[in-house]
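Tokens in:
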């Protein structure tokens, strides 16, 4: 059973109406317009005191580097934030990144990739693949991890597939947190799961996915990596709460991986919401511990 604090938080989020932004394409468009006026959130002053944080521009977009202070970095994580490909990074992401830098002792590269609907998948994946190539120029791939939540989790898997296809060195592994794997939102069970999901609704999520696809087909593996090639990928650790409409596609990925013999370790938690490992529940702390275990194993 989910912890009381996770259940209470899910109830608060549902009562707040936050998922209404995904009720339709029109409601999502209004939310995106408000978000553009605000822009991305920045690392807090506390983070800036605790870590060595630098910022560079790459093709007009910001890329942050967050390093542990006064110690040798144990490796590198490229972290791709969630937000349905339409929303900027928020403090929830930065707090999770801070916890992971502390726990892993690794440097986090955080690209603020271009967003839909102004930019489609081709532009987004080209940008993150460029970041990946740039990191490879100075980092040992055996100590490099791709990590992302929600849309960022889907993007991380797509990036790994494209890197392998391009003949680039593959990372040591991937950590996918409630990844968005199929933007068509047509999986069986999603309609039923939507009734208990306190954060997401299919109509708006599907609209965001089609904006992101742009000129590409929605089932193109660059857009929806559920349909991509799993053979040749490194080990994957994946989390998804069972009160999350995206869990249906996480299960489909596990089944595909079993067929082709890919190494996917899946942790599905009963009663938990979307991107719960980023949060502050007992289950979140357990997930963070599991991430540390997995990363230590694949980079050690």
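Residues out:
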């Amino acid at each position: 059973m989910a912890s009381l604090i996770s259940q209470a938080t899910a109830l608060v989020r549902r009562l707040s109406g936050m998922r209404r932004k995904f009720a339709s394409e029109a409601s999502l468009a209004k939310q995106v317009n408000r978000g553009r006026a605000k822009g991305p959130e920045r690392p807090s002053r506390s983070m800036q005191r605790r870590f060595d944080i630098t910022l560079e521009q790459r093709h007009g977009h910001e890329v942050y580097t967050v390093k542990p202070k006064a110690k040798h970095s144990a490796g590198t994580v490229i972290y791709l934030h969630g937000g349905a490909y339409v929303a900027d990074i928020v403090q929830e992401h930065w707090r999770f990144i801070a916890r992971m830098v502390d726990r892993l002792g690794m440097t986090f590269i955080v690209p603020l990739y271009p967003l839909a609907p102004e930019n489609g998948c081709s532009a987004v994946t080209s940008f993150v693949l460029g970041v990946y190539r740039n990191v490879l120029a100075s980092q040992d791939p055996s100590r490099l991890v791709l990590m992302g939540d929600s849309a960022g989790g889907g993007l991380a898997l797509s990036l790994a597939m494209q890197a392998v296809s391009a003949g680039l060195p593959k990372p040591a592994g991937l950590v996918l947190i409630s990844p968005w794997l199929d933007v068509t939102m047509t999986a069986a069970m999603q309609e039923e799961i939507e009734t208990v999901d306190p954060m997401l609704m299919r109509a708006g999520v599907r609209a965001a996915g089609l904006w992101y696809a742009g000129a590409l087909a929605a089932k193109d593996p660059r857009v929806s990596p559920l349909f991509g090639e799993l053979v040749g990928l490194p080990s994957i650790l994946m989390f998804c709460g069972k009160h999350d409409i995206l869990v249906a596609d996480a299960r489909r990925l596990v089944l595909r991986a079993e067929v082709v013999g890919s190494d996917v370790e899946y942790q599905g938690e009963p009663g938990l919401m979307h991107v719960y490992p980023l949060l502050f529940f007992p289950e979140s702390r357990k997930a963070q511990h599991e991430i540390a275990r997995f990363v230590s194993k694949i980079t050690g």
